[in-house]
Amino acid sequence: MFKTIADTADCEVRSVIRFLKANNVKPAGIHRQLVEVYGENVMTDGMVRKWVRQFNDGRTNVHDEARSGQPTVVNDGLVAKVNKKIRENRWFTLRMLCDEFPQISKTVLHENVTNRLNSHKR
User: Fold this and answer.
1) What DSSP string describes 11-38?
2) Is the pTM of the predicted complex or chain greater than 0.70?
3) What top-level branch of life does the organism fall under (predicted)?
4) Where are the alpha helices (DSSP H) in 1-122?
5) Exposed (0-12), middle (13-18) or buried (19+): which is 17, by Cβ within 10 Å?
6) Which of 42, 77, 97, 101 could be cross-linked to 38 through a Cys-Cys bond (beta carbons 3.0 to 4.6 Å apart)?
7) Is the pLDDT of residue 42 over 50?
8) What is the distance between the alpha carbons of residues 7 and 15, in angstroms, rounded to a whole number?
């Protein structure tokens, strides 16, 4: 049994997939070897098949594609905190929330309060 390698970069795993695919290893065999070396949570069999297909279609880059836009600071944990603040004080104002959560813009807070939390509906 191999020693499990933890904390791998996605591009490392994709490089291994590309290498094994070039050696004519079937997707199921690639997945089995990945799990042996990187552990159970490395990548699903379906994702391995997706990457094998992409490499078959001519992809050579193992790195993530560039994405447009700015990453959001709003996540489920932050939404839960905003929701908790609103529940603590039903007479909240957007200004009060902006003071409580300075890392979130007023526009984003407003959108999340009205769209995600449905606080504007009574």
Assistant:
1) HHHHHHHHHHHHTT--HHHHHHHHHHHH
2) no
3) Eukaryota
4) 10-22, 27-38, 45-56, 76-88, 94-100, 106-111
5) buried
6) 42
7) yes
8) 15
